[in-house]
Amino acid sequence: MSGEAVLKTFRLKALDHYFSLSKCFVSLDKDGKGKLSKKKLRQALDEFCIPISKEEFQRLWLHFDDDRSGYIDHEQFVRRAAEDFNPGDNKGVSTTIVKSSQETAEDFSTDQSAGGKISC
Length: 120
Known about the structure:
By secondary structure, the protein is mainly alpha-helical. It contains six helices and two strands, in the order ααβααβαα. The chain has a two-stranded antiparallel sheet with strand order 1-2. Helix 1 crosses helix 2 (21-28), helix 2 (21-28) crosses helix 5 (74-82) and helix 2 crosses helix 6 (93-105).
């Protein structure tokens, strides 16, 4: 699966399961440090049952880690996960998704009582 296809599939599954990219980030950030490592991103892909080669994973990682810091923060995750809906879109779908995700981040609880497992 190509990096682009993985990103689209990841976004759809994240939105389907968590209803916002921001909630997805909070759930993946299990230690609460506000950062996702390569390992956490890889685990998320595995949980979503999304196959990806090492080379494509590296491309996907570089897409998210655009400042090359070695981790993905909340803002990067939400912005980069939504970005390819319409690159350069400042008033449309991607902007709406990012804004909505940021607004709901504070309201999200990582309560796993609703199952917590992601089905493939």
